[in-house]
Amino acid sequence: RGLINVTVVTAGSPTLWRQALLSNGVEGVNVLGGCHQELDPWFVGANSKASLARALVAHGAFVAAAGDSALDGPMLEVANLPLIVPDRRGSTALMVAIQHVTRARHLVVD
Q1: Greater confidence, 88 or 74?
Q2: Which of 30, 23, 98 minimizes the C-alpha distance to 66?
Q3: Residue 76 — φ and ψ, nearest 5°?
């Protein structure tokens, strides 16, 4: 069995990610990022997510990326496995932004 290193990089709340992972029995996953420059040790925005995904792919990493808005488009374009996680409105702008990314998959979360 091979070792898989998983890190969640978020422009959202790292605390919510950690809670969601733990409540689903997932331990040992690093969570980096945040949406508050003043509060979070790592601030992640749209450009930094795309740059990080691009750098990881260039270094041979397999990148699965999930996005719910058009701001995630550049990141999803370079990811090996781009996952669209529609928001309540259906993420129409994201769908338009990445319509040319044929490998994108829809991830439905209940």
Answers
A1: 74
A2: 98
A3: -65, -30
Q: Is the pLDDT of residue 1 over 60?
A: no
pLDDT at 58: 95
Helix, strand, coil percent values for the chain (each to nearest 5): 35, 15, 50
Between 45 and 52, name the one with better pLDDT.
52
Q: Give the C-alpha separation, 25 to 91, whole Å.
A: 29
Kindly provide the b/e burial profile for residues 30-51, where b requires at least 16 CB atoms within 10 angstroms of the residue's own CB. Answer: ebebbeeeeebeeebebeebbe
Burial of 87 (0-12, 13-18, 19+ CB in 10 A): exposed
Residue 78: per-residue pLDDT: 92
SS3 call for 31? strand
User: Pick the residue with more confidence: 47 or 2?
Assistant: 47
Cβ–Cβ under 8 Å, residues 79 and 58: no
